[in-house]
């Protein structure tokens, strides 16, 4: 979680988690405007090794997503 200093936070998976998962084959992201609660599953990451639910580390509204991962 990175505080952007303007009231927004950037959330993602760690470099370590990316290395453990390997090549990604599918990512399901929340929609802009969705409200999430801390601890709630909000995304899915599927790799050649495993599928993992991604849990929100903080509560709030999704204001943007990384569109590179939409397809």
Task: Quickly describe the structure.
The protein has 71 residues and is mainly beta. The chain has one helix at residues 15-21, and strands at residues 2-3, 9-10, 24-28, 35-36, 41-47, 51-55, 60-61. A hairpin with a 3-residue loop joins β5 (41-47) and β6.
Name the overall outline. Answer: globular
- What is the percentage of strand-forming residues? 35-45%
Task: Work out the radius of gyration.
Answer: 12 Å
Largest sheet: 3 strands, antiparallel
Query: What is the strand arrangement across the widest sheet?
Result: 3-5-6
Unreliable stretches (pLDDT < 50, length at least 5) are none
What series of H and E elements makes up the topology?
A: EEHEEEEE
Number of distinct beta strands: 7
Q: Could you say which structural class the secondary elements and strand pairing correspond to?
A: mainly beta
Task: State the end-to-end distance.
Answer: 24 Å
User: What's the helix count?
Assistant: 1
- The average pLDDT score comes to 90
Helical amount: under 10%
Give an account of the 3D structure.
This protein is mainly beta. It has one helix spanning 15-21, and strands spanning 2-3, 9-10, 24-28, 35-36, 41-47, 51-55, 60-61. The strands form 3 sheets. Strands 3-5-6 form a 3-stranded antiparallel beta sheet, with no helix packed on it. It has a two-stranded antiparallel sheet with strand order 1-2.
């Amino acid at each position: 979680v990175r505080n952007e200093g303007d009231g927004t936070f950037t959330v993602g998976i760690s470099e370590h988690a990316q290395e453990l998962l390997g090549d990604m084959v599918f990512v399901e992201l929340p929609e802009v405007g969705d409200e999430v609660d801390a601890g709630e599953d909000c995304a899915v990451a599927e790799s050649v090794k495993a599928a993992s639910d991604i849990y929100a580390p903080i509560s709030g509204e999704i204001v943007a997503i990384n569109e590179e991962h939409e397809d």
